[in-house]
UniProtKB/TrEMBL annotation:
Gene Ontology, cellular component aspect: plasma membrane
Keyword Ribosomal protein: no
Source species, domain of life: Bacteria
PANTHER family, A to Z: DIACYLGLYCEROL KINASE (PTHR34299:SF1)
Compartments (UniProt record): Cell membrane
A molecular function GO annotation: ATP binding
Protein name, UniProt field: Diacylglycerol kinase
Protein keywords: ATP-binding, Cell membrane, Kinase, Lipid biosynthesis, Lipid metabolism, Magnesium, Membrane, Metal-binding, Nucleotide-binding, Phospholipid biosynthesis, Phospholipid metabolism, Transferase, Transmembrane, Transmembrane helix
Keyword Transport: no
Residues binding a divalent metal cation, per UniProt: 24, 72
Biological source species: Gemmata obscuriglobus
Amino acid sequence: MNFRKLVRSLTIGCAGLIDVIRSEQNMRIHCVVAAGVTAAGGVFALAAWEWVAVVLCIGLVLSAECMNTALERLADRVTQERDPLIKQAKDCGAAAVLVVALTAVVVGGAVFVPKIGAAVGW
């Protein structure tokens, strides 16, 4: 294993993540929500399997947003003109983020609603 290549790959990945956070409002929203969910997980003392579900959902949403941003930037590089196929590709990328985010909401509900209910005496 080449340690320098590994470090370079990690550095490039971190630079990409920072760029997406700086440039994309939706990514910043996802990060704020992820921080809030993580804090709520600490407050409600999630079980190990609940943490796994929550962390996987956070990772999937952030990854989907990164991939959508990459797709949008590549499409914009190809042409700035209105192209119905590029619009469809961008819409599909946005839909992928939406599907993952909605799935995360469902998982979050399954994890947190019973805990909130127990805390308020439902």
